[in-house]
Amino acid sequence: MSKEKPKIFLSYAREDMGMAKQLYNDLKRYGLDVWLDTESLLPGDKWKEKIKDAIENSNYFIALLSTKSVNKKGFVQKELKTALEVLDFFPSSERFILPIRLDDCEVGERKLREHQWVDLFPEREYQNGLKKILRVVCKEALFLRNKPKKISEGDATEMIRRFGFYDKNKNPEGKGLVHKYKLQKIKGDKIVYDEATGLMWQQSGSDSTMLDFEDAKRWIKKLRRNKFAGYDDWRLPTLEEAMSLIEPKIYINSIFNSQQKWIWTADQVKDEQIMFWVVDIDPGGCYEDFYYSTDYYVRAVRSGQSSR
Fold first, then answer.
1. Which residues contact 83 (CB under 8 A, 6 or more apart)?
2. Cα dist from 133 to 60, 120, 287, 292, whole Å
3. Which of 74, 156, 177, 274 has its CA 20 to 30 A from that of 288?
4. Exposed/middle/buried for 63, CB within 10 Å: 0-12, 13-18, 19+?
5. Interaxial angle between packed helices 47-56 and 75-87, expressed in degrees from 0 to 180 and rounded to the nearest 10
6. 59 backbone dihedrals φ, ψ, rounded to 5°
7. Per CATH, the architecture of 7-137 is what?
8. Is 193 helix (H, G, I), strand (E, B) or coil?
9. Helices (runs of H) and strands (runs of E) counted in the chain
10. Pick from 102, 21, 10, 88: which is nearest to 55 by CA?
11. Where are the domains of the chain?
12. Beta strand 285-290 with 275-280: parallel, antiparallel or unpaired?
């Protein structure tokens, strides 16, 4: 029997709805059960009762705090009061309320100040903050870098060994990841969603290899323009994301189309102007190659939920 997903209540002030929705989407893509009023309340619901029940039955209460919310009178304060009452029933060793600051606000509530908070600001700290939240609410979630960067040979080897990825040369003893793949068809397009990493992959990819890296980027732009599977935020995978696909002996799960055996990544080789990291799915590994290559396919990825 699969382990039940923790229930997470997301509390916020209306002025912070944009950030609340972003965090909701990022937590949902790891398969988490997140309660957000705009997504969870249905027409005809007695919303005050539903909110109270949702808080009382949650495993975690995420309080989004900002200069707007801490000084605001309204139902957001009622939600926090209910959560503090529920907290009294939790053992002191367990986490329930997770204070998350959206700006440099002053936390006035005494009981709230007793809890370690996480900052999601400035913008460059958002990913680090999300990673800390996931370490509490979803310990098995794997957080892979999704922004391109320049990587040296040493950096690549260290990363592969740290994650336990399989690489025939850099880490032949690597076991690879334990994935939670789901094959879906959205708007007629096949995707593979992985709850372990929160990533959505194309089930196949490009039908032919790209003339060079610019062609790969143009192919991605076309995918976005055509809204493959209904989304316009597809991208080339980072080296971490691409290497996560490789499994020892089988090299890539049979849920994927196996034609795309060699794929481009978005990461450039450090101290090189025209070299990028590429991944060889079969027999499994990564290496540096030139910008002008004719051997590599594209398998696009996005960070997103499994369904609309």
1. 9, 11, 55, 61, 63, 96, 97
2. 11, 10, 33, 41
3. 177
4. buried
5. 30
6. -85, -30
7. 3-Layer(aba) Sandwich (3.40)
8. strand
9. 10, 13
10. 10
11. 7-137, 150-303
12. antiparallel
Q: Is 67 helix (H, G, I), strand (E, B) or coil?
A: helix
* Mean of pLDDT over the chain: 92
Closest CA to 112 of 94, 102, 95, 98: 98
* pTM, two decimal places: 0.74
Classified as helix, coil or strand, 127 is helix
Task: Give backbone dihedrals phi and psi of 47, rounded to 5 degrees, phi first.
Answer: -65, -35
CA atoms within 13 A on the CB side of 30: 25
- Rounded CA gap, 220 and 234, in Å? 7
pLDDT digits over 145-174, tens only?
A: 999 999 999 999 999 999 999 999 999 999
Residue 182, φ and ψ in degrees, nearest 5: -135, 125
Tens of pLDDT, residue by residue over 59-73, are: 999 999 999 888 888
Output b/e per residue, 276-292; b: 16+ Cβ within 10 A. Answer: bbbbbbeebbbebbeee
Q: Which residue's structure tokens are 């790209």?
A: 210
Q: H/E element holding 21?
A: helix 17-28
Q: Which of 228, 133, 138 is nearest to 189 (CA)?
A: 228
DSSP code at position 208:
S
